[in-house]
Every structure is written in C-alpha cells, then in structure tokens.
Amino acid sequence: MRVLGIESSCDETAIALINKEGDQIVVEKKFLASQVKTHAVYGGVVPEVAAREHADLVFTLLQQSGISRDGSDVDVIAVTAGPGLIPALRVGVELGKSLAWAWKPGGAGSGFAGKPLVAVNHLEGHIYSVWLTKEMNVPQFPALCLLVSGGHTELILMKTHGVYELIGMTRDDAAGEAFDKVAKLLKLGYPGGPEISRAASKGNPTAINFPRPMLDSKDFDFSFSGLKTAVRICVESQQGHSVEDIAASFQAAVVETLVTKTLRAVSEYHPASVILAGGVAANSSLRASLQQVLSHQNETVTFHAPDLSLTGDNAVMIAVAGAFRAEKEEFVDPLTLIADANLSLVK
Amino acid sequence: MSMQYRSNTPEQTKKIAAEVAQTLKAGDVLFLEGNLGSGKTTFVQGLVEAFRYDGPVRSPTFAIMNVYPTSHPTIQKIVHVDLYRLADASELRTLALEECLEDPNALVIVEWPHLLEPLIKKPYTKITFAFLENEARLLTIEKYP
Predict the structure, then answer these.
(1) I want to staple A203 with a disulfide (CB 3.0 to 4.6 A). Which of A244, B48, B67, B105 is the partner?
(2) Residue ranges of the domains in chain B?
(3) pLDDT tens, A270-312?
(4) Under CATH, which architecture does the B14-84+118-137 domain have?
C-alpha cells in the first residue's frame, strides 16, 4: 500500500510517499518546504516560510516529488488534521481533501468515490516515527511514549494501534520551547536544542543545581517555565558561570526530569516498550540516559527512538501512521474533514 | 489612566489576573508585555481559570495560538496568542489574527504584541510585567487609546 503523507501543522509543510507491505515499510519520497537555514538569521522559526505561505508551495512540492499527476502511484492519502495552528493545518488538510476528491481510487478502500483519505493526529504521527527503524525492531503493546518537541511534552500510553491514553503533559512550557528560550538567553543560535547540546558537551552538568520542577509530584505532569526563569536569573546575576556550564546544568535538569517521570510511569503502567519521539528525541543526552536507565531498571522493556532525520516534524511519520489507520479502513470523508487546532489523541 | 499591582509570587499573579478578568467583556483585546519568565503565561492561566475553563493553559510560543472555549454567556472563547517567534509584521497576515480580533464573542490575549500594536485598529488594554527585587513583579495596566 502506497501512502502519500501530508503534514503542515505549524512551521513545516512536508509531503512523503511510503510503501507498506506487511511489516515492511519503505520511504520512497520525502520533501520539506522549509529549511532550518532560512530560519537561522532570526533566532526563531519564521512562520512566514510556512503556514499560509506554504499554500503557494504545495503544488511545487508535489511536482518536485515526482508523484504522478493523476495519483496512480498512490493508494491512500494521509493528512495531519490537528492539533496545530489553524491557518497552517488548513494548507495540508485542504490539499489532502482536494487530491482525495480529484484522484481516482486505487486498490485499497475502493468503496469510496475518490482516493481513500485518512486523518492523522500530529502526535500520533510522532509516535509512529519509530516504526521506521531499520532493524525491524518495532514497539510492543502497551507502549509508553514520551513525546517531547517545541510544542509538546506528553506521556502517552499506547494500548494498541490507534488507541491512546494521555497520562501526563506539561502545564506550561514544552521541553523544546525551554531549550529554544534558554539558547536565546545564552545567546546561542537557533534551533536551540542542538546548540545547547553542543555547549553542554563541554560543560559541567553539576555546576549549577537548577530546579527539577514537579519531580516529586505524584502525577505525570511536567513544568518547564520555572526552570527557564531560574536560568534567566542565573545569567543575569553574572555569577561567573560559563555558558557551557549553564547549558550542561540546564540540560541535566531537563533530562533528569523527563527520565524520572518516564521511569515512574513505567513502574505504574508496566509497558512492554518505551518510545521516545519528537524533536527533543534528537538530544543525545536524553536518548542515552533514558535507554541506559531503562535497561538498568527493567531488562524486558524495549526502548525505541526514531532515526534522527525523523525527530522533527515530517510527512513520513504521518504517512506511516496513516498506513496503519488505512489497514483498519478508518477513512474520512473529504466533504466533512476539517482542520482541528485542538484535535485530541484520545477518542 | 493606569493601575499598578505588585505580585510576589506566581499565585499572586494568578489572583490579579482573576481580578482583571472581572473587568473584561467580549471583544476585548489584552496585550501582555514583559521579558522571558516575567509571568505572562502565568497571568493567562489565572485569567482563563477565572472563566472556569478547566483544560490545560500552556505557553503558545510554538503553536502561536491556543483557543480555550468557555461556558461564559458572552466571552465564548479566549484566544491566547504568542508572537514571540515572529520576526516582522509581514508574518502577521499568515495567522488570520483579524478573524479573532473581529470576533464579537472572543477575548483575545496577545503575548509579545510589539509587531501587532502599531497595526491594531481597535482599543486595547496593555499589561506590562516588570521585574522587582526578590523575584517580585510589577504589573502596570493601561488602556489605549
């Protein structure tokens, strides 16, 4: 089954074509509309190069991808329906609906007049990014997922394909947002994650004892706003700490908080697998710590993190999640699908 | 005319926000100005809680816009905007902010509003968050024009 994935939930507009035959998933094409290089001069992501502006880019993207004009090499269209920024989401959702409306059906889902369309939750897409590991080492259920990105910090229990329970989330700032804002406080570049990580590798993670917010709370929620403020106070107080030491100590606080809460959720929910996904999953310290601590605590729990190229927002993960939905024939009607800024993962 | 409040803790910032909430009506626009960690999102949390919205109120820095539906008879939704990541005013048009600003049933709250402020065509209230000693904050509330 060939699935065209379309993702435009915030800054990135992307398309991808995957082919899923049984358990075998092959990425055939992938294209991103925005590039980190374009963003670097601003010290922040520029929504202009994404969002509504990308409405002008989608057909160029399709053309450059080499996907057939009549959709004959596509069986199913998968599109991110939310959550996200409405003007940005609409770009992808309307494209998906138009193609589903215009293209003739292929093999799968041929009961529909047009090309079968599936709606994918953006968070679900991130989770499915780990189904693309080369070793065919896929998660077992139930799977506990730590989703960490610029906009999300969530602990999600995945009971089986498409069935989720939200067990914890950030109450203020996302972990990735904290990385970006601390990078700006330290006058490091954008994106903040890799810059903090690089500076941290040369610093002492125990130099400053930054707060580990909500570490002792009994729930599985997070809070990173206070940590950001603690770093600001530290920078402004000019106590003579090096940028490297501040970065390392900040990163240590974030990693310890995320790892400790995840481990506690493992003890509570006894998952067969733990999934780390989202842009912050590219952080090598977080990847290594979580994997190491998990293998120490419980050798039977398997650990899964996406290929580094799939940690950020991308359309490949949307296509993969869409393929699993299509297998269950969870198609949506292009006449009624609308982008939903607050789309919930839990039905 | 301006009013000032002193807040010593995030909890006090939320209480001040709940007081401010009592003075607001549908169609109002609030601008929140202040540096990183000065309490803007905390203020919005307190304000939205006062409208009995019990879902999460989180920083919209990445999402740019969060919408909280309320059960209030006239302020039916609170639109929480954060323009921190915008580099210039030309990017505003990608956000369809005018749809929210013209919605008679919405209360619009904008963090990092400096790019929008010269362009807005309706009255607004600006709250400035300044740092005082010992991590206290000074909140200054002014109406424009």
Answers:
(1) A244
(2) 14-84+118-137
(3) 999 999 999 999 999 999 999 999 999 877 999 999 999 999 9
(4) 3-Layer(aba) Sandwich (3.40)
What residues in B contact A235, CB-CB < 8 Å?
none
How far is B56 from A208, CA to CA, in rounded Å?
A: 31
CA distance to B6, B10, B50, per residue, from B72 (Å):
28, 25, 10
Nearest CA in chain A to B85: A44
User: DSSP class of residue B8?
Assistant: S
- C-alpha distances (whole Å) from A157 to each of A127, A326, B37, B50 are 11, 21, 31, 31
Burial class (CB in 10 A: 0-12, 13-18, 19+), B30: buried
Whether pLDDT at A210 is above 70: yes
CB pairs < 8 Å spanning A and B: 90
Residues of A in contact with B95 (CB under 8 A): 47, 51, 85, 87
**Identity of residue A17:** L
